[in-house]
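Journal club side-thread
Mid-discussion, someone asked how the predicted structure for our own chain would compare to the paper's figures. Pasting it here so we can look after the session.
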Amino acid sequence: MALSSIGPFFFYNPPPRIGSLKPVRTIIHECDLVGTFGIAASVTGIIVGINYGSSTYGYNNPHFYGPFIVGVLSVALTTIYEGWFRKDGIFHHDLFSHTKRNFSIAAFCLFIEGWLYFSGVAAYYPQMVRYLGWETDSFYIGLRKFAFSATGFVLIIPIIWIVTKTKNVQYILCFAFCAYLSSMAAFSTFGPEDVYTSIVAICIASIGMTPQLILLTMTIQLASPPHLIATASSLGLTIRGIGGAFGSAVMASQVNQRMAKNLAPAIVPLAIANGLPASSAGALVGAFRSSALPTIRRVPGITQPIIDLLFPIVRETYADAFRWAFITCLPACVLGGISILFLDGKKIKARMNGVVDATAEKVNIEEARFQREKVHPEETAGQ
């Protein structure tokens, strides 16, 4: 990460930009602040509402439906604005008309990929490792996550080689969604005893996820006009992040609901029957929800035999919650795999021609050559 940040600072030395600077008003207009604010308000309102409804307040509380309604209204207003009043904003209309359906399908699949990765792999797989007792040390939890990254790293070159040779992304993407579907199906059955099979499942998830990120991003760029490739790339990655936010909120909703429903009835009667004061029931549930031993040991009246008795039950309760959370990923995998089939493969193949598009800016060739010679005189010294 440090090298990727420092490298361009020392080694990226482009020629000076040619042309007059745009007025500040024009720059602000091109940033599409209305659309940006609309997307932010939409995502924030809906996700805050889902999180409040699934955990703290419940779905019949104003804390849920207040932000949620604001988010839904923001979606509607942003759609109207971007669809009818702003044709060159964040959702530039040329992106959707250049290759007809390819950009829309690729962006939708990238939304699903973000949903699956940021929720299933990035957010809840490490929690599953910890709360089910597969690993307790953060270093070993990180090693398990590294298995996902290492598998993806090994796959990069083969994926690039196959796509370069075949010029076909649909078959690999369909296979990728099927692989990820199998891994999510496995996670939706796991319990505390699946210590090692979970490592195999996360490697299979990487086999499914790596082609998705590489090829869907590439498809978005190939499906966009050359002058909008930066807009298309940033929009695609933004949609991916939004998908991750929604996926995490949905999985959190499942985990919170299942734990709120099942944890206290599973452990409180048993703990009281073994000597825990009834007044410590609330503290007991909160402490075991964190699964932090120092917090559990501070519960008034608790003893080590009670802790040893309750931990397996708590892990089984967490396993049930995580299973239901990972089940929410299965329809998304199926929907993504089906959507890939509707890509126009001929148009993608036509763009994979090895031709580098010229700059979309209007540049005076003689002035550009003069500026280049001033910055890099050694390039023309022998000419």
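Post-session note: Residues 25-85 form one domain.
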